[in-house]
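Good morning,

Attaching, inline, the backbone tokens for the sequence recovery test we're adding to the shared suite. The designed sequence is right after.
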């Protein structure tokens, strides 16, 4: 498996063989408390940055080593990596883990045509997913940094075939109900892909009718919620927190639904407190504070009192 990055020439790539063979995310006026909090957080290297464990990915790998590629992403560069040939012609789930940088991912076919894209409303750290059915015929991934030129970080991509690892419905046996991870990972990927479509429209990278971006963001919100509902128990607590934080960021930046953002951010902060992920907890708390400022500002302008939004809960 090879990765090429002729446009950057700066990436340092480390490859793990398989066992077999900017703009658009910010609200119009960002409250000063979030500006200051994000500036402070940007200076802190996440404590979990080298922990790429994922409860669902680990459980679906069947104990086998998975194809991976990772590199240092420097500034606003563009990197390309080839999908392992052994996985061509198979349904594929791709996980992209970032640390310190914000990226969007495109999948290209052999003719160089874009067939899929993924992005996440959570900046600089966390996971985003891309699902590639067989008919996409994707062979290459292009990773583009949304970050400013001065920001450096790392990117790690993991490839998981939808065949032979129990991820597909067929792998669970005829008539069997898919495990929670099957639904969660597919819905998470659907959410990230819907968000990417919406963001491409708001950035002017794609043309669409008025309201198409908002519809894509609503679709992403529903899919993130569906993924969250599919996961339960302490094993998936960190993943649940990431989904709650994604919903908080999506509600704030894309939908400008500050009440929902405050609820989801509060829930994410509580989840990360339980998993002892202090950096992610701080990110959630900063976002919650910003949402509260937006609510208070709008309430004052309208002559109303801002009520405490009830905490989000997903059965």
């Amino acid at each position: 498996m090879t990765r090429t990055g002729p446009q950057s020439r700066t990436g340092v790539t480390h490859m793990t063989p398989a066992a077999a063979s900017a703009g658009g995310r910010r609200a119009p006026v960002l409250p000063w408390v979030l500006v200051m909090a994000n500036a402070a957080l940007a200076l802190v290297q996440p404590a979990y940055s080298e922990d790429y464990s994922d409860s669902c990915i680990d459980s679906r790998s069947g104990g086998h080593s998975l194809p991976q590629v990772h590199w240092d992403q420097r500034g606003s560069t563009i990197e390309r990596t080839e999908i392992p040939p052994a996985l061509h012609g198979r349904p594929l789930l791709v996980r992209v883990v970032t640390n310190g940088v914000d990226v969007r991912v495109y999948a290209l076919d052999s003719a160089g045509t874009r067939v899929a894209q993924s992005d996440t409303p959570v900046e600089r750290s966390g996971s985003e997913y891309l699902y590639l059915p067989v008919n996409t015929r994707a062979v290459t991934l292009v990773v583009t940094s949304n970050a400013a030129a001065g920001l450096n970080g790392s990117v790690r991509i993991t490839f998981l075939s939808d065949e032979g690892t129990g991820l597909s419905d067929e792998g669970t046996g005829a008539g069997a109900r898919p495990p929670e991870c099957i639904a969660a990972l597919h819905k998470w990927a659907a959410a990230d892909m819907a968000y990417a479509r919406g963001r491409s429209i708001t950035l002017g990278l794609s043309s669409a009718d008025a309201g198409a971006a908002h519809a894509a963001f609503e679709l992403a919100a529903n899919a993130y919620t569906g993924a969250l509902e599919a996961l339960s128990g302490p094993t998936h607590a960190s993943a649940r927190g990431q989904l709650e934080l994604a919903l908080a960021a999506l509600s704030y930046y894309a939908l400008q639904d500050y009440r929902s953002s405050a609820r989801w951010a509060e829930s994410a902060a509580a989840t990360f407190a339980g998993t002892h992920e202090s950096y992610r907890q701080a990110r959630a708390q900063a976002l919650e504070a910003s949402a509260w400022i937006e609510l208070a500002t709008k309430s004052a302008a309208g002559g109303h009192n801002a009520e405490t939004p009830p905490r989000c809960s997903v059965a």
